Amino acid sequence: MKIRIIFTFFYFLLSLSLLAQEKELFKLHSHNDYKQNVPFWTAFASHCASIEADVLLVNGELMVAHERESIKPGQTLESLYLAPIRKAKDLGLPLSMDFQLLVDIKTEAYATMEVLEKVLEDYRDILSDGAKSGVQVVVSGSRPDINDYKNYSDLIRFDYQDTDLSKRLPWDKIALVSLPYSKYSVWNGKGRLVAEEEKVLKELIKTVHDANRPIRFWGAPDSKTAWKAFFDLGIDYINTDQPNKAYEYLSKLDKNLVITKYPHAVYQPEYLVDGQEVPIEQIIMMVGDGNGLAHISAGVYANGGVLNLSQLKHIALVKTQSADDFTTDSAAGATALATGEKVNNRAIGFSVNETPLKNLPEILKEYNFNSGIVTTDHVTGATPSSFYAHRMDRGMTLGIAEDLANSPLSLFIGAGKNDFVTNGRDLIQSLETSGFSMAKSIREIAHSGAERIGYFASNQGLPTVNKGREDYLLEATRNALSFLDNKQAPFFLLIEGAMIDSGGHINDAGMVVEEEVDFDLAIGEVLKYADDHPGTLVLITADHETGGVTLPQGNIAEREVELEFSTHDHTGIMVPLFAYGAHASAFTGVYENTDIFKRIMELVHSHQQVNSSN
């Protein structure tokens, strides 16, 4: 059973190796590697550039252990390392064989070295002799006198452990410089290095690099924060007892460190009626799909410390659970916003009792409100469709598309035209029959005199901002506001930034940040409109959080932020709500997502009259 587990783990690691980058920007040293559950293979699959094995000469054999008391029968340098290295080479694995095997001698140097030389000769085919590539054996711990290094095999080099880097040293036999971390710093890997200690480490690193050798510190902190700090310092071999975790973290670091390519200046809100009890004429709900507090924070830091969103003063926290699950999906989350009812995941405007639920556009029609939706998703996507459709499952795309023509919406802008031309049915004609004029561009929407207007921005899905969608949401928002404003009647407008969620699902830090910053551009446009139209209530929230995002580190001066993800799915973390304009103060506190709908309707009831002719 134990052998089966080892081989299963080996092949699991082997499968991970296929995901290797072509070139690593960091090097890991697997400290005391023999203590891993699977020695050598764990470090090898984790692309370690240096693998350490403590050895003791016992009865003529090189046993792998830290001290005699912990020796286990059969665990020799050959069985745990040299033979597996040869096996790895014979298998032709797509991993570098140019790493170093650091042999840390724990017994008397000369006797141990004599046996080591003999053992290594049997593995000359896989080892580097200085003239050919291969695994470089480096001796550490108990070593011969430095003047004797020249007498040893061309298969062996040594670990130098001093800061006296004289030119008289036998540099051709010295592979690296290793130093005790605690001698130069007391930093424990939490927070950040103090400036004085950072300066000392930088000077040491420079001194070693000037001698044209790599440097390693032993006894160093072993955490994500420490790995990044040591990577930033330029330490060549990052010491770790967690090679798999260190590799997973550092291999993603370049992708998880983000500086936005599209920073923007923010609009300064006027706050003239912010929170005041003036009659509501316009309600604009903005939903950043998947947009949690960490996503927003990342956008703030990447955009120079401020977003349009971060200037708002009325803030709440919203619980997002659905009727049948702790973690909601977008359908149930958006339906709660649109109808004020908790529903099962996947339901679009459909109750737990399998009956249609009236949504905001339908209810507000009774108060002479026009309504519209703008999205970066398909028009039939879960969030926008929750504001016009009634279907048991979000996957019922054709039925959802049919519902659009029967809805009270005056405007829609989004992707997915092909959802309306499918299975031999042309639902575009149904839209036109119901009164929708189909625009050929976003820009013609603003001044259109049509009663109802729709625009499909693409046949399928839209690209991300990074792939060419820049300014689409801003233009769509601007034109939608103009179209609805020209009707000189109250209106409700839903605006969705859908791809913050997409970035969270695939753990793409750059995508999350760029979609966040893009969403904020539309927020700025809405805030301008609200200041020009004092009867406007702006609500900005999310249907749920996606990705379990945290922000472990960053650099505000450089507008750099690091994102980490704990899941590829949604989470149950509360999401923020920001309110601006008329009655914004009614939306502070901590409450259920269904309460947003209820608070909207309380205000509408107070300030608008039902049209008895509807």
What this model shows, in words?
The chain has 614 residues and is an alpha/beta fold. It has 2 domains: 2-256, TIM Barrel, CATH 3.20.20; 282-559 and 570-607, Alkaline Phosphatase, subunit A (3-Layer(aba) Sandwich), CATH 3.40.720. Helix content is 32%, strand content 20%. The protein is built from 17 helices and 26 strands. The chain has a 10-stranded mixed sheet with strand order 17-18-14-13-19-11-20-25-12-26, sandwiched between helices. Strands 1, 2, 3, 4, 5, 6, 7, 8 and 9 form a 9-stranded mixed sheet that branches. Helix 4 (109-121) links the parallel strand 4 and strand 5. Helix 6 (224-233) packs across helix 7 (243-256). The chain is elongated. Mean pLDDT is 94; it is low at 1-23.
Strand share of the residues?
Answer: 15-25%
Amino- and carboxy-terminal Cα gap: 74 Å
Give the biggest sheet. 10 strands, mixed
Which parts are unreliable, with pLDDT below 50 for 5 consecutive residues or more? 1-23
Tell the overall outline. Answer: elongated
How would you name the CATH homologous superfamily of the largest domain?
Alkaline Phosphatase, subunit A
**Rounded mean pLDDT score:** 94
CATH topology of the largest domain: Alkaline Phosphatase, subunit A
Radius of gyration, in Å, reads 32 Å
CATH architecture of the largest domain: 3-Layer(aba) Sandwich
- Look at the structure and give the CATH class of the largest domain: Alpha Beta
Q: Find the structural class using helix and strand composition.
A: alpha/beta
Strand order of the largest sheet: 17-18-14-13-19-11-20-25-12-26
